[in-house]
Amino acid sequence: MEHIPLFTLLNSRLRMTLIFASAWILLGASAATAGTIIGSVRAEGKSGADSETADGAYASRKYKFVERVNYEDMHEFLVFIDGHFATTNLTTNVVQVSTRRVAQQGATFSPHILPVVAGTTVEWPNEDNIFHNVFSVSDAKQFDLGLYKGNPPEKRITFDKPGRVDVYCSIHQNMHCVVYVLENSFFAVTDKRGNYSISGVPPGTYKLKAWHERLPMTEQQITVPADGEVKADFVMGIKNLPQY
Q1: CB 87 within 8 A of CB 58
Q2: Which CATH architecture has domain 39-236?
C-alpha cells in the first residue's frame, strides 16, 4: 500500500479548505450585490371632477347611469426599469396566455396585461367552443392568427421589439389585452393592493417607470443598494401632459 507523506496530505486538505472557503465567499458576495425595489402604485382623478356627482347634472336620468372612471379600483399597474442590461439574457420560455371559456359576448383574454422580455414567444390557446381571431396592428408587433379553435402549435407569436402591443379579437367587441414588451427582466405587476416587488436588481442608479393602459406613464430615478431594499411609490393620474 502506497504511503502518502503527511505534509502532502495536509497540503492537499488545506487547498481543498481554501477552495471551499473561496466558493462560500463568492456566493456570499454574489448574494450581497443585488437589491430589491419595493413600493406601491395607485391612481387618482383630477380634483373637482367629483363635485357634481351627488347632485346636479349627474343626478338626472340622462347621466345617472353613465359609467365613470373609478381611479381607486384601478389595478394591474406595471413597474419596470427602463433600458437594456448587457448581462440580461433573453428568455426562451413560452408564456401561456389563455382565453377563458365564457359566453360569446363575454369572451376575454387572461391575463389582461402581460409583460414579457423581448424575445419571448407567446401562445394563444382558444379554450372556447367558438371561433376567435387574435390580431394586432401595433407598431411593436403586427400579426393576424386567423380564425381557429383549440391551441394549434403554429398559433404562436415571438415578440422581439420593445413596446406596447394591443391585441384584439376581430369577432368580439370587448376582447382586448396588452402585451408589454420590455428590454430587461426587472419588472413587476402590482397585486390587488397596488404593491409590487422587483428583486435581484444589480446595484446602481436607474430610471424606474410606472405604466397603466389608460394613464400617462410616470417615472422616477432610484438608486438600488448592493444589499437591502429601496422604496419607490407612485401616484398616477392625468398629469404631466401638454395643456391647451
Answers
A1: no
A2: Sandwich (2.60)
Q: Give pLDDT, residue 228.
A: 92
**Residue for grid cell 443598494:** 225
**R_g of the chain computed on alpha carbons:** 26
Helix H or strand E encompassing 122: strand 120-123
Nearest to 149 by CA among 99, 97, 108: 99
206 contacts 224 by C-beta, under 8 angstroms: yes
Quick check: helix, strand or coil at residue 140?
A: coil
Q: What is the C-alpha separation between 104 and 171, in angstroms, rounded? A: 10
- Contact of 115 with 190, CB cutoff 8 Å: no
Within 13 Å, how many C-alpha atoms sit on residue 125's CB side? 12
C-alpha cell of 54? 351627488
Predicted confidence at residue 55, as pLDDT, reads 62
- Chain segment 199-217, per-residue pLDDT in tens: 999 999 999 999 999 999 9
Instruction: For residue 105, give the C-alpha cell.
Output: 359576448
**Structure confidence at residue 86 as a pLDDT band (50, 70, 90):** low
DSSP secondary structure letter of residue 126: B
* Inter-CA distances, 77 with 45, 69, 88, 189, 239, Å: 16, 16, 23, 6, 16
What is the DSSP annotation of 90-116?
Answer: PP-PEEE-EE----GGG--EESSEEEE
pTM: 0.79
63's grid cell? 347621466
Question: What is the distance between the alpha carbons of residues 101 and 130, in angstroms, rounded to a whole number?
Answer: 9
